Structure formats: C-alpha cells, structure tokens
C-alpha cells in the first residue's frame, strides 16, 4: 500500500498505459480519479476495481478543451480536499499526417505540439498550487523514447515528447521550493491494443531487432516505473527522465545487424 491515503489524477486512463497506471495506483491504496472524455469506458473500470476493494472515481477531461484541465483538478480537490499525484499520460499523433520535415503540414505539426505539450503544461499548472497547499506532491509525465531517439517520421510527436522531457526538468526546478517533484517515464514499444492493432508484424520485428531486451514492454512495466515516482520511495528524486524501453536506442546503431551476424555463425 505504497500510495495509501494519496489522491491521484491520471489523464487518458481508461485504456492502455493509462489504465495500467490507474489500476496499479488503486491497488497500492490511492484514491484514483480517471480523467477522461468517455464516462462509459471509465465506469467499466470503476465497477471492476471497486469490486476488488479499490477506490476509483471519474472526472471529466477532454484533452482538446483547455478549460477541462483546470476543472478536472478543481473538481478532484473539491471532492477530496487535496491532490497528491498527477500523471500526465495523454499523448497523440496522426501517423498518416505527422510525417517527415518535407511532408508534414505546418498546421498538423502545431496541432500535435499544442495537444501534447499543452496537456502537460495546463494540467501541471492547475495542480501545482493545490499540491503546494498540501505540502507537496508528485507529477509524472508520460513521454516517449521517441523524444530521445530521432525517427524518420512523426516529427511533431517526437518534437513534442522531447519538449516534454525538458518541461519536466523545468517543472522540477521551479516547483521544488514547494516540495513538488516532477519526473518523466519514456516508454518504448509497449504492447497496448493500439500498438498491436496498428503496427504490422514486420515493423514490430524490425523495432525489436534493435532492442536488447527482445520483447515489447507491457503497460504494467510502465506502470511500475510510474509507481516509483509517485511513491515516497522517490522522495529525493526529481527532474529525472527514465527510459523504460528495453534498452532501445542505447547500444551501437548497428546492434541488430551485429546480433544477426553473430547468430548466423
């Protein structure tokens, strides 16, 4: 029960990595607010976790409506009297439009940046004053390995995630005086429904070829890293950018080819 008596808000938390984070927090004793646009999908999670003895509620957040970031925090604080943990999990990109520097429309580039960076800025800004009144808190931003390792496509997504990594350090620096920590977790290829349904097997195999731990991550792998930053176990840790990617991007760029050559011998 590492989060007992803590109040947490997790954005985009009704499926994938966000759902795994919310469930892990609830099982560790937190009162968790699922911040999402779809109340029906949230209710299905609430019903299941409540039967397990967890405390989970819904709060409305539409990632594309700026005013809902402030309202989700204020509603949570009004009901609970505090907020201790904020997980900025929302992220978006349209891979059919978010392409390379030659092909991406400027408006699409800005749309991706505004959605991804704005979600972190607005939610964090709304939460910090309340956390300060409570004596501190923890903000965890879900970034991406794509913010550290340049790609041949999705220029808006990669740029936005790189900006979130830097924004994490800025928040950590500027909020530390109020005992508020801010860290980021950078997932690699993770076996969510979206990934499994939208990425071809050839692409998955190619990606894993360059991943030292030769498997996809699971949403639970990401959730466990986030749990560390949310808990008091990381009370002296802030401004950290933690890659949870199986080592993707770490070794020599010819890693995958060298392993194949060695296996053929």
UniProtKB/TrEMBL annotation:
Keywords: Lipid metabolism, Steroid metabolism. Gene3D superfamilies: NAD(P)-binding Rossmann-like Domain. Coiled coil: none annotated. InterPro entries: NAD(P)-bd_dom_sf, Sc_DH/Rdtase_CS, SDR, SDR_fam. CDD domains: SDR_c. It comes from the Bacteria. Belongs to the short-chain dehydrogenases/reductases (SDR) family. This is Oxidoreductase. The lineage of its organism: Bacteria, Bacillati, Bacillota, Clostridia, Lachnospirales.
